[in-house]
Specification:
A 4-stranded antiparallel sheet has the order 2-3-1-4, covered by helices on one side. It has one domain: Alpha-Beta Plaits (2-Layer Sandwich). The relative contact order is 0.27. A hairpin with a 5-residue loop joins β2 (29-34) and β3 (40-45). By secondary structure, the chain is of the alpha+beta class. The protein is globular, with a radius of gyration of 12 Å. The model has no long low-confidence stretch (mean pLDDT 97). Helix content is 33%, strand content 23%. The longest helix has 13 residues, at 13-25.
Length: 79
């Protein structure tokens, strides 16, 4: 999950979307989307070996690199 900080800058959206496109091309992104209240969004990673790997991927997200959003990675046990 990515939650916008008060300092959020719309200029980071294009690099973030490019980052997500790269993940999708690599077969690592299942779905993504913003929250309707515009406070942030979420994306679901797939084909990831570990929680540590998922956290490393999220750390490369331009949202995290610019400090405009707080990213949290959760392991999701689906049924």
């Amino acid at each position: 999950m990515a939650m916008r900080r008060p300092s959020f800058d719309d200029a980071v959206i294009a690099p973030h979307l490019a980052f997500l496109d790269e993940l999708r091309a690599a077969g690592q992104l299942e779905m993504t989307g913003g929250f309707s209240d515009r406070i942030g969004g979420a994306y679901v990673l797939v084909n990831i070996a570990s929680l540590d790997e998922a956290q490393a991927i999220a750390a490369r997200d331009p949202l995290a690199l610019t400090g405009t959003s707080d990213l949290a990675v959760h392991e999701w046990n689906t049924r």
